[in-house]
Structure formats: structure tokens, C-alpha cells
Amino acid sequence: MIIDRAEVIVTSPDRNFVTLRLTTDDGLTGLGDATLNGRELSVVSYLRDHVVPLLIGRDAGRIEDTWQFLYRSAYWRRGPVTMAAIAAVDVALWDIKAKAAGMPLYQLLGGASRTGLLAYGHASGQDLPELFDSVRKHLELGFRAIRIQSGVPGLKSIYGIASNATVETMAGVRYDHEPAQRGARPAEEDWDTRAYLRHLPTVFEAVRSEFGPELPLLHDAHHRLTPIQAAKLGRSLEPYDLFWLEDCTPAENQEALRLVRRHTVTPLAIGEVFNTVWDYQQIIREQLIDYVRSAVTHTGGITHLRKILDFAAQYQIKSGMHGPTDISPVGMAAALHLGLAIHNFGIQEYMQHGARTDQVFQQSFTWSGGLLHPGEQPGLGVELDTDEAGKYPYEQAYLPFNRLADGTVHDW
Ligand code: CS2
Ligand code: MG
């Protein structure tokens, strides 16, 4: 199986997506997601200008060798652009190998370790009534775990509140929050940590009294707190028994989590902006997190993320793969196949894509009883309709950024 064609397909049905499609000399195709939100074209160039010329003529069956070749021969290692490009090649090759074997990819990865994948949905609201309404909508959709994001009095617009952006999904339900806004410049948002720290525990108190103690509840602090503020938040949320508190503090300095861990037993999830195992070494070895948040698309593909999760398993740390709308249906399918096969699966994030996106990407995953399953099609189970994709050219879009009241740029 020799790779004799490699295409980088950019489309923007409901948002921008970058997809690599590899075709072998015997006509098998494989897809890989290379979408890096707000910086999509950098990965397109990395693939088109530097990687694609190296793939033509290679043996499609040598996945590990191709991974090592792309990682080591680049000389410049790691980083979001490189690891998204390598991820796309890796997943496309796994798709081809599973198709050649005539089986769904999870079977090639060792078979199913469970009947389906518990997934969480995004409930949000500017205020409690809107939030409660969103929780009820997600329970009606079958979600058995829910992420709670709330507006903060005094702040105009903050991360995660769906009412800020609307796109109709297949099910006609309001589209979850799409952070990247189309336009020539990133939107500026305001932030006040003390107001947030005062307000959030009251939100969880209200949600627990409205929906009871059982429902698994998650929250994303989205990298905005210092370690001691994160410790304080984790402790103040302990009475509400969160499934996890995510990205409580920027984790470039992995040591920062020691301070958080010292003060709270609220489970911690980190890693969606990480790209390699080296970003996790200390926080896994020192048991400073409970969930690995990396997505296949941003962490060097199935080949590399599986190694991170195998490392994490030694410390009883589980997966909590990133699954927002900027992970394409191809990246999502890869996450579902890997998640079904590994033992230390924790939970899967599931934001529904828009109706146009579902036209461009034909998918075979299933959603029932609050569980996702990748389906039984050979390979990933996703096909890309090139003509449909061609209808939606790339549109510049940026993630917002934050400024504090005194004008200081802050983590968004
Ligand atoms: C978020 C993402 O889903 C999440 O947990 O952190 O929505 C994140 O903001 C986007 O993926 C950024 O592109
Ligand atoms: Mg997050």
C-alpha cells in the first residue's frame, strides 16, 4: 500500500476545518483532522509545503516509522502546529490500515473495552434561569454528564456561554458555544477573577439543589486563575462534588499544580493545549491531575496520545478527551475509536457539530443513552464529500482574548 496522493482540504461549513486525505495506489483513502482553531492556515502550509512531498511513495502501513520520521527529521520538535500536522498523517494512516484489514479502527487498537463512551455536553447561561433551561435541554438530548458554565455579574461576555453565538444544529437545538468568531481581528473580552470566584460556588449550589447530587457536573476555568486562586476555587466547589475542574491554572509550569493539589480534592483535568507526553511528565508522575484532556488532533495522533494514556494508566489517571466543535468529525471519530479501546477511559467531551458540517462529513458514530460509539464501519467510519466541502471556503476567524479592568492582557 503505497501513498500516491495527499490532499489538504480546507472547508468552512459552520466553522473552519482542515482535513488531510491520503490515497494509496490500491485506492484506499484515509482521513486525518489537522484543525488548529484560529491558526488553521499555519497547519495547512506545514502539511502542503513540507510534509505532503515526503509522504508520496511511502509505505502506508509503516505508521510508527512515519510518525518517528516526521517528528525527528523535522529537527524542530513539538508545538501545536507540528503536532497537529503529524496527527493528521497518523490518523489517516490508521484509517487506511483498518480499512485494509476490513475492520473498525477500535478493533485494530485492541477491541472494545466497554459498550460505549460516557460523554458530557455543554450547558451554559448568562443567569440561573438560562442555565437551568440549558441543563434541561441537554438532559432531554440524553446527556448523563453536563459541563456547567455561567455568566458572571458585571462581566459582559465570558468563555463558554452559548447565548453569545447561535447556529442551528441537526436537532434544532441552540449550538453550543463556538469560541472562534469569524472576522479580521480577535474580539476583546473582560475578566475579573475575584467576581468569578465569589459567583461560581453560588451557581453550583443552585444547580445541585435544582438537579440533585447524582448528576456528574464539570466546569472549565479555562486557564484563568493563579495556582492559589485555583486552590481556593477547587476547595469552594468541594461541597458540590464536581466530576472535574478543568484547566484551573495555565500549566506550562507543571509545578503550579502542586499548590492546587495541596489544598483541594476536587478532581483536576488538564491538557487540551498540550501537544506531547513531555507536557505531562511531571503532572502525571506526581499524580497532580486526574484526567488527560488531550485530543488526538492536537497530540500527534493516535500513536502518540495512546502512549500518553498508557503512561497515565500507571497512575490511575484517565482520559477526558477534548471534543469541542473545533475538533472535526474526523478528529472526533479518532477519539471515539481510541476511547473505546483503552482501559483507562474516563469521559468524552461532545459538542454537536452544525448541520452543514454533518453534510460535509458523513459519519457513522452513534449516540444513545448518553453513550457515544464509533460505529462498525471499516476504518474511522467518516467520509468527506469534496463537492460539499468546496461550497464553504475558508473564513478568517479568531479566538477572543481577555483584558482585565486595568487593561492588562489576561489568559482567555
Ligand atoms: C474548551 C474549548 O471545550 C473546551 O474545553 O476549552 O472550547 C476551547 O476553548 C476551544 O477548543 C479553543 O479552540
Ligand atoms: Mg477546555
From TrEMBL:
Mandelate racemase/muconate lactonizing enzyme C-terminal domain sequence ranges: 129-267
InterPro entries per UniProt: D-mannonate_dehydratase-like, DgoD-like, Enolase-like_C_sf, Enolase-like_N, Enolase_C-like, Mandel_Rmase/mucon_lact_enz_CS, Mandelate_racemase_C, Mandelate_racemase_N_dom
Superkingdom in the source lineage: Bacteria
Gene3D superfamilies: Enolase-like C-terminal domain, Enolase-like, N-terminal domain
Cited NCBIfam families: ManoateDhtManD, PRK15072.1
Identification of the protein by name: D-galactonate dehydratase family protein
Organism: Dactylosporangium darangshiense
